[in-house]
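Researcher: I'd like a structural prediction for the single chain below. Treat it as a standalone chain; there are no partners to consider.
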Amino acid sequence: MGGDGRAGRTLVRARNLVKRFGDFTAVDGIEFDLHGGETFGLLGPNGAGKTTTMRMLSCVSAPSGGELRILDRDPAREQTRIRERLGICPQADNLDLDLTVVENITTYARYFGMSRGRARARAAELLEFARLEDRAGDRVQSLSGGMKRRLTIARSLANEPDIVLLDEPTTGLDPQARHLLWERLFRLKQRGTTLVISTHYMEEAEQLCDRLVIMDGGRIAAEGSPRALIETHSSPEVVELRFGYDAADTYAGKLDGIGDRVDPLADRVLVYARDGDAVVNEVHRRGLQPASVLVRRSTLEDVFLRLTGRALVE
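Model: Treating it as a single chain, here is the predicted structure.
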């Protein structure tokens, strides 16, 4: 599960990558590189094109246009060779319910030509990594959702892949299961495993990704490390002002000129600034009396909402 000597090399190259379904363009000319040993994120709201992009990277769906190279190969002609070197964790668990936990891994490993002995050894190693060694002989249906997700990820590592693709790896998990899975993924990252993660969880992207793209409407709205994106598209601090039961937008005009940007929401007003305490002092100097004040650091969620908007996407 460690690095494979590909650290720093370009493992995926996408240029003007397009995917159409009839008249609908799901991915519209995106470009990025994936380097060995990094954790790369695809962050975006529902319908942004993340899963479609993951399917192209998985060699499941052929691009409609543009250039895609994976492990120095053309997926249009060498998809079998590429898939042998990929670990794929789909959005929905697709474990074999008729097999035991350990059999799900050993059977999958055998598809890649491993001997029975090597498959058993690999399964033991992966079950320990996933913290499922005490459930090896259990049927899959007896596992919790978090355990099934960890098993799906462990199985995706059976062939010792060069790249592991994880599509929405923690969707539907409770907070405890999500944090345990993050800890397992962070261990993979520490070992130099190359990961591609699609997610709509800001904290997940901020904690795990070395670099990411924010997608919206099939296009890339921004690219960079989480810290660089925050520094470029937001301010160092955010002040959250709540005004009780009064409509927050009635106060927005009274905050003109305070900070870098004022964003009125239904229940509070956000003021983006370099110095949050200075904003609070100015709010009080103007005679405003918010019911509560919170000064916090700017996060990836602030960047995400600024670039993609706050409208609900179904």
